[in-house]
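$ ./design --mode recover --in tokens.txt
reading tokens...
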């Protein structure tokens, strides 16, 4: 069977698709990954075959300012209550959807041309790559959407989330002979059920499989801990799951000294991880919180732009098993990596999807959440906000309820079906003869 994957960006868009692509290859199917030329190297590094379908103009890719910094208070379950949103908030969502349609328009010609030549029996696309549904509709084959770890199935291609297709998207579908009402036949969803919002879409839970964007053979980070942490509420480090998916056992004894917030300190360092995706690095308040934690004896391990000029510690999923908390923006990959590690999370969320993930984590008791816009950008204000963030971070380290909820989230995540089960589900969509 020939399966065509497509996405418009590497990183968080490509990474969730890699495990299924590899599982399909192992099952004997043919796989190609059609991407803009700037993503081809990332596909090849993942051990997959890229197909270049042209470059995306930067003007198309650049996100409008409003969706990047949404103002005002949004309902924590806004994707399932669009009627509760203001006209201005619907305008933000419309700007996001129109941007994704422009990206789909830039991809569609090359993607459909290759698809008509290669004749795949199935198209798998990331949640924001609407061109994948266009190509599947043009060929009359099933389409599968790959979610990234968001709490919701976001239909930004729809007017007001639940209405008819956006006009530009409808025109694009008709241009290639596809039905504008066509939707993916199945969504692959790595979000743990306790974090997910309800949806009428047909979803298949698929366990998150960590991947650092290179190859199946990954070198452990120096921070990876192969010791154990096991019972919620105890002073123990979390273990890295072995082949069976369960951690080993190791209890860290207290040495009688006091920890960062006055509680018993472990014999080893109290370690937290700070991960940031934006090129500019964390806000000043986040930097102040990390500095405050370090002055109290906490070891801060930095990943991504949070490393701030220093070599990053390593892939996030290999750093987290040695940490007792994660401070980050709330991106789906980071949320799922921390869920797999059983680590409580402090989310300082700059964007809508980040805020949604943070709110769901807080609701599950596995973390805390703050919109980035709530932080004071002035220097004195940033110091005060940093002190409050540090107190939140210490609460995650000290209050057993957060560790207990994070462990429960880990168990739930590990119980989800793996990519091998997804292979059987997606190939059945193409018909019993496949």
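writing sequence...
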């Amino acid at each position: 069977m020939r399966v065509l994957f497509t996405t418009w960006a590497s990183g968080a868009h490509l990474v969730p698709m890699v495990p299924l692509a590899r599982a399909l290859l192992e099952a004997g199917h043919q796989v190609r990954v059609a991407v803009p030329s700037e993503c081809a190297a990332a596909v090849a590094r993942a051990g997959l075959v890229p197909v270049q379908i042209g470059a995306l103009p930067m003007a198309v890719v650049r996100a409008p300012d409003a969706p990047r910094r949404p103002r005002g208070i949004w309902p924590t379950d806004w994707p399932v209550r669009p009627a509760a949103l203001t006209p201005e908030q619907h305008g933000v969502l419309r700007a996001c959807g129109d941007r994704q349609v422009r990206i789909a328009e830039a991809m569609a010609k090359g993607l459909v041309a290759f698809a008509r030549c290669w004749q795949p029996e199935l198209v798998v696309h990331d949640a924001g790559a609407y061109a994948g549904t266009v190509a599947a509709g043009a060929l009359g084959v099933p389409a599968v959407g790959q979610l990234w770890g968001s709490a919701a199935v976001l239909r930004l291609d729809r007017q007001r989330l639940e209405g008819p297709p956006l006009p530009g998207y409808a025109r694009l579908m008709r241009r290639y002979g596809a039905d504008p009402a066509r939707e993916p036949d199945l969504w692959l969803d790595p979000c743990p059920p306790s974090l997910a919002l309800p949806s009428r879409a047909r979803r298949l839970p698929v366990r998150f499989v960590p991947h650092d964007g290179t190859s199946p053979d990954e070198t452990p980070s120096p921070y990876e801990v192969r010791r154990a942490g096991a019972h919620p509420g105890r002073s123990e480090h979390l273990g890295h799951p072995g082949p069976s998916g369960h951690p080993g056992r190791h209890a860290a004894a207290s040495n009688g000294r006091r920890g960062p917030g006055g509680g018993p300190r472990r014999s080893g360092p109290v370690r937290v991880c700070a991960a940031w995706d934006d090129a500019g690095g964390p806000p000043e308040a986040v930097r102040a919180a990390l500095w405050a934690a370090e002055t109290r004896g906490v070891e801060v391990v930095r990943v991504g732009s949070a490393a701030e000029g220093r070599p990053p510690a390593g892939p996030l999923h290999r750093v987290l098993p040695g940490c007792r908390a994660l401070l980050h923006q709330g991106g789906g990959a980071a949320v799922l990596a921390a869920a797999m590690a059983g680590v409580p999370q402090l989310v300082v969320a700059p964007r809508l999807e980040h805020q949604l993930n943070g709110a769901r984590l807080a609701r599950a008791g596995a973390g805390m959440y703050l919109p980035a816009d709530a932080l004071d950008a002035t220097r004195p204000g940033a110091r005060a906000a940093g002190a409050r963030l540090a107190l939140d971070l210490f609460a995650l380290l000290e209050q057993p309820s957060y560790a207990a909820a994070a462990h429960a989230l880990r168990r739930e995540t590990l119980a989800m079906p793996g990519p091998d089960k997804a292979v059987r589900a997606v190939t059945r969509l193409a018909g019993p003869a496949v």
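exit 0
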